[in-house]
Amino acid sequence: MYRDNSLPFDLLLKQAKKGNKSAFGEIYELWAERVFRFCLKNVGDREVASDLTSEIFLKIWQNLPDFVGDGRSFSAWTYRIAKNAANDYFRKSKVDSISIEDAPEIPANEDPFECFDTAFDSKLEGALQSLSDEFRRAIELRYIKGLTFGQMARHLHKKEGTVRTLISRALRALRSRLAK
After folding, report:
1. 3/60 same-domain check
2. pTM as predicted
3. Which terminus has fewer CB within 10 Å in the chain: N or C?
4. Is 127 in contact with 174 (CB distance < 8 Å)?
């Protein structure tokens, strides 16, 4: 993901391990969508997936000082926490489902979250294409290029509050199309 004027991931990770909330916020911005989609794929419910994503990042924050590794092992560690959270959800809710323990092993050199993205990506792409150009552009700048609201405001020659409203409306329209 595009990050303007930001630190390399390993340095962000180091700072977050020391308790730097801003660095952890950047890590969250980089990882939240992937973790959410992984959870959504496994539990099939947007609200539950959102709750699990929050729980997962809380666990990551709480356990980050004990984490040993770099950006590559962070991916595997995050995946393991997410997988355990989904398993715990099913155990607690006693929902009939196929255990994600039966999921195929993913080679260490691959991003585990990518395996679960394909089906959702095609639906998302169709929904994005159905949006207005303005909404599609706003989502692209924010979530694909990773611009902040301030950077978007400068790029679009709009006030920051207007950009926040634009993103809110674009996401609402996107959610509506994805729900169909």
Report:
1. yes
2. 0.51
3. C
4. yes
